[in-house]
């Protein structure tokens, strides 16, 4: 009996590590054409009373790619998500899938809200099935899907326990199942990594990558820029109910002025002395050199390579954090 | 519709599997069983010989004005007060008062003239009718003495005074006395269930909001389906509880019917006409919906479970007011008074008012139909309105919004 139980544990672990695709419930495997799906929000407007919250939000998110929806508190992210989820209608604009207006009966959406919470006193399996059924699955299919995801996230042993007996991180994994169990084609994850330890964060990353690879549109909303940079191909930064910046993240970064160089050298002091105010020592010991124009970079790089002992030299690319601060506004500015 | 069924199923399980729900229902069934089986148990185990022990009656002291009238006075008082053991006394007032305060006697009647007496009692009960009876005894004694003085023999005078009167009642409507007890119980059950389950609906919604499960629910189901699912589930749970309690009481009574034959009140409770049970069900369900929808809507506007009680207070007061109007009218015996007739058409009061009038009076069919039609229309209207409040309310966090703010949000949402 003990051996059997051990074997079951090993199988569950193997399945977990392998991505669990074989164990997926029927109909949950990747479908043809999913990758080409395009979600588009066009000029979405929303007012609550006199207050105009969204002033024409437009962006496109593509299947098989992750999309980062960014913005400071009060920028309009949650309202945009709620309109996208059909919680309330927009006052203007349109949401389309592949050019046709979205039909919520045929377009399941999974949602992990920032404000986590399920029924603390209820059995985990029962409440997960309840939410999966509400999202359209039949009872049997819901049970199969829930069991699959419990195994996939290493939570099978808690199946028949009450939610409030779990740690915060594990409760968050249970919450994630409510977003994924009904096999949605669009997954909205609001701050998915908050409160997770590094091991669970890694597991969640694996799962999210699998969902992206299965052709789904994964929409991230997060203030943790490192995760957005890791996952998202496209972003939209909202500010005061408008899209301040949207597009391909790499293209956005490339489009930045390339007038700074990052230099790693053994002659740090000499370089600093030579470049004066235009040279800054970074925390990791590298030097950041500001040039008069990006057209100077070839000449400056040549001069550095010929004059000093240079280990590494590259054009400085701004981080998403830098871009966010620039477009979403600095602290204290327009804080709502 | 499918979502509604799923929500109904989930919410119903929440009640049926709740330990408090099961425990309270079972406890009530046990209490009812104990009460109804009591006479049987008493007959079986109380006295092995099966004979009733003679009951000791409380003592009433009577002092006649003249000593020679003592026997007649004692006889008249004994006939008028069968619940007392009558002792003729010649003691002084002080001694009589002492015997009462020491608990030896319960009360005393001291005759001070042909038409006057002093009544001594330790604690005057709300329901003490002894003075009224004693007035009657003295009046008879006075008439008897007067007749004897006029030349009639005491026997003749007594025959005249106690001439038997026969009467026959032909009731063309309802017998209020017979219907009073089961109507009272039914109204009380209606009141308790609506109040308890209505508040449960409000707490349930508020706790979903408090635990933030609402964030998922509003993105998974339509608010109308959620509201109707919750309310109908709690209504069914209430009905299940009522059925378990009254059903078991009915079964227990029928098992012990012979032991209760002498008790008119208990027997009348279980002789409820079937059509009245039908009306009870109809008014219970409609009344429940009206209040539970509103309780649910109010529950959606608060962010914390502990704020629910304060938020639902106005609605609870309205319901208590409706209950009081009905109870006072029932107590006064005039269930067709103007207040009750008006209340029969107001959806917040009609479930109790119209039901009471049907049970204890004769109400024309068109009045019943009109009341039910108004009630059904109100249920639909309040249901839809509550779902709208719910949809707006569940998204509002922080301090409970004012009624005006909610309606503004509904209009502009």
Task: Describe this protein's structure.
The complex is a heterodimer of chains A (336) and B (413). With 336 residues, chain A is of the alpha/beta class. Chain A is built from eleven helices and 14 strands. In chain A, the strands form three sheets. Chain A has a six-stranded mixed sheet with strand order 6-7-8-3-9-10. In chain A, strands 2-1-4-5 form a four-stranded antiparallel sheet, with helices on one face. A four-stranded antiparallel sheet of chain A has the order 12-13-11-14, with helices on one face. In chain B, β3 (107-113) and β4 (116-121) form a beta hairpin. In chain B, α9 runs antiparallel to α11 and α11 packs antiparallel against α15 (350-360). Chain B is elongated, with a radius of gyration of 30 Å. Chain B starts with a helix and ends with a helix. Classes of the chains: A alpha/beta (336), B mainly alpha (413).
Give the helix/strand layout.
The complex is a heterodimer of chains A (336) and B (413).
Chain A: H1 2-18, E1 38-48, E2 51-62, E3 66-71, H2 77-84, E4 92-97, E5 100-101, E6 109-112, H3 124-134, H4 139-152, H5 168-180, E7 186-190, H6 198-213, E8 217-221, H7 225-231, E9 232-239, E10 242-248, H8 249-254, E11 260-265, H9 268-275, E12 279-281, E13 287-290, H10 297-307, E14 310-315, H11 320-328
Parallel strand pairs in A: 3-8, 3-9, 6-7, 7-8
Antiparallel strand pairs in A: 1-2, 1-4, 4-5, 9-10, 11-13, 11-14, 12-13
Helix pairs in contact in A: 3-4, 3-5
Chain B: H1 2-16, H2 19-46, E1 59-63, H3 70-80, E2 85-88, H4 93-101, E3 107-113, E4 116-121, H5 130-149, H6 154-161, H7 176-210, H8 213-217, H9 223-255, H10 264-269, H11 274-301, H12 308-311, H13 313-332, H14 338-343, H15 350-360, H16 365-393, H17 403-412
Parallel strand pairs in B: 1-2, 1-3
Antiparallel strand pairs in B: 3-4
